[in-house]
Amino acid sequence: MNPTEPSNANTTGMLRLFVYGTLKRGFWNHDRFCRGVRTVEDAVVRGRLFETSSGIPVLMVPEEDILAVGTINPRADVATQAHVTARMSNPKPNPDRLPKNPTGAPWAPVYGEILTFDDPETRLPAIDRLEGFHPGGPCLYRRVLVSVCMNRERRLIAWAYVAGNRLNGRFKALPNGNWR
Fold first, then answer.
1. Rounded to the nearest 5°, which phi and psi values hold at 59?
2. Is residue 59 within 8 Å of residue 110, measured between CB atoms?
3. In whole angstroms, what is the distance from residue 22 CA to residue 32 CA?
4. Run of H or E including 129
5. Per DSSP, what are the bridge partners of residue 98?
6. Are 30 and 22 in contact (CB under 8 A)?
7. In this structure, are strands 15-19 and 108-117 parallel, antiparallel, or unpaired?
8. I want to staple 179 with a disulfide (CB 3.0 to 4.6 A). Which of 23, 57, 133, 154 is the partner?
């Protein structure tokens, strides 16, 4: 399958990950951690993007946009992603439905890519280590499930690494929502 082809709506066994920094195509961690990814698509989330003094990007998203929090169990996280996707796409009225036009300052579009993996049990632990994600403990980044916009009409649910409880230091705001 061509890595730039659109992914299917079926998430069974597939892991979707929104990336906005060094895991994007063309950056140093993409080849190391994402070789063999099934698909790569441009995507946008609602949030704020910052850069640390060491040049690493940090995403912040509104707490109300977080649909689930990641665990140490890749299978459980893929199942959660599939369950939330099914719940959000249900045509019946549901209080958990995605907002059509989320608004609110200071949130704005943050640009990145959605990577789709078919081997989450291999990929997720390695990327969690890279991102310093340790559920239940101090974390550089938290892995959370959020709504991602693929184009003006198509939304998917994907995991993203956002600012954790151990991230500190000076941040420079990136008002254009794009890192490098």
1. -105, 135
2. yes
3. 10
4. helix 120-131
5. none
6. yes
7. antiparallel
8. 57
